[in-house]
């Protein structure tokens, strides 16, 4: 099978985006496409794949995302900006209501974060504190700044669904080895956390800046995770570290976004949707491999504009 793909990223969280509006593959095949395209030893590499899906009565277009391991999460807010760019360009609209797996979001082209950086504003939520839905068992119905002894005796986590599951711990300094240790416990899908979780450590750097590092479910450490940045901004408000509705800078390993969260749990992020190149590639579904990549157009100007941030 030969696919057209767009290699793109939001804050360095990188994806192969596929216009799937006229493609009919079953979920198992998309999972296999995700494993093939995200393999960093293969010709493309990435944290996941994004599917632009068609309109319905409510939404101008939709997004599906598959993680590198082939699992399909509920949302992806860095990926949504890339899908928004593709969907807005495809439909010719300046803004849109977008269908996600289990929820909706609103997107619009925003003023460029910096010269030449295509920027999208996205609003998603509401964030939910109900962990019975994950499920996360044995820690009560809500987890707010609480020790989860099965993960660490020292850290205090807040559990938030965006609606994908996030465990957020504010720390003085991100300890990456500890983040990986805890991320891997969750990745093992223990009986008390069968659907796993994304785990983030967050530094409050000043009254206008957070730094977020995330071990993502189905992927591992990534440069950035948009839903984690949204969750972290909401938890900063919930725990009184920052006022709700203040727009702050959320830094990450791949760059930054501007973010705000309301008390009702709606989060708004404004950040890049950078296209690196477009091309075609062959997928061997039986083997789960990608080969014969042909890049048809490169965008060094977009890569350079983002690097300057
Ligand atoms: N990187 C994404 C989140 C992708 C999904 C996540 N790994 C999960 O399984 O929930 C983002 O930018 O939000």
TrEMBL record:
Subunit relationships: Homodimer.
Main localisation: cytoplasm
Name of the protein this chain belongs to: Diaminopimelate epimerase
Lineage: Bacteria, Pseudomonadati, Pseudomonadota, Alphaproteobacteria, Sphingomonadales
UniProt superkingdom: Bacteria
Organism of derivation: Sphingomonas dokdonensis
Subcellular location: Cytoplasm
GO cellular component, as recorded: cytosol
Entry-linked HAMAP family: DAP_epimerase (MF_00197)
Keywords on record: Amino-acid biosynthesis, Cytoplasm, Isomerase, Lysine biosynthesis
Binding-site residues, substrate: 13, 67, 164, 198, 216-217, 226-227
Record-linked InterPro entries: DAP_epimerase_DapF
Enzyme class per UniProt: isomerase
Pfam families: DAP_epimerase (PF01678)
């Amino acid at each position: 099978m030969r696919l057209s793909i767009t290699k793109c990223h939001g804050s360095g969280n990188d994806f192969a985006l596929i216009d799937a509006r006229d493609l009919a593959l079953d979920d198992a095949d998309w999972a296999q496409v995700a494993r093939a395209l995200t393999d960093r030893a293969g010709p493309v590499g990435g944290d996941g794949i994004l599917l632009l899906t068609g309109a319905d009565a409510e939404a101008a277009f939709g997004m599906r995302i598959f993680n590198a391991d082939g699992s399909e999460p509920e949302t992806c807010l860095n990926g949504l900006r890339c899908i928004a760019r593709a969907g807005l360009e495809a439909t010719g609209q300046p803004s849109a209501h977008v269908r996600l797996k289990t929820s909706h979001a609103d997107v619009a082209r925003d003023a460029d974060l910096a010269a030449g950086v295509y920027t999208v504003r996205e609003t998603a939520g509401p964030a939910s504190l109900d962990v019975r839905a994950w499920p996360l068992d044995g820690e009560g119905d809500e987890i707010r700044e609480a020790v989860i002894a099965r993960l660490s005796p020292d850290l205090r986590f807040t559990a938030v669904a965006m609606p994908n599951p996030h465990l957020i711990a504010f720390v003085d300094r991100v300890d990456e080895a500890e983040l990986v240790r805890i991320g891997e416990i969750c990745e093992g899908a223990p009986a008390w956390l069968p659907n796993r979780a994304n785990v983030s450590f967050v530094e409050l750097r000043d009254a206008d800046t957070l730094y977020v590092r995330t071990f993502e479910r189905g992927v591992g450490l990534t440069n950035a995770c948009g839903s984690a940045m949204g969750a972290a901004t909401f938890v900063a408000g919930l725990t009184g570290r920052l006022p709700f509705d203040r727009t702050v800078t959320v830094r990450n390993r791949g760059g930054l976004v501007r973010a705000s969260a309301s008390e009702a749990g709606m989060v708004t992020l404004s950040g890049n949707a950078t296209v690196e190149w477009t091309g075609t590639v062959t997928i061997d579904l039986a083997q789960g491999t990608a080969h014969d990549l042909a890049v048809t157009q490169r965008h060094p100007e977009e890569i350079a504009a983002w690097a300057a941030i």
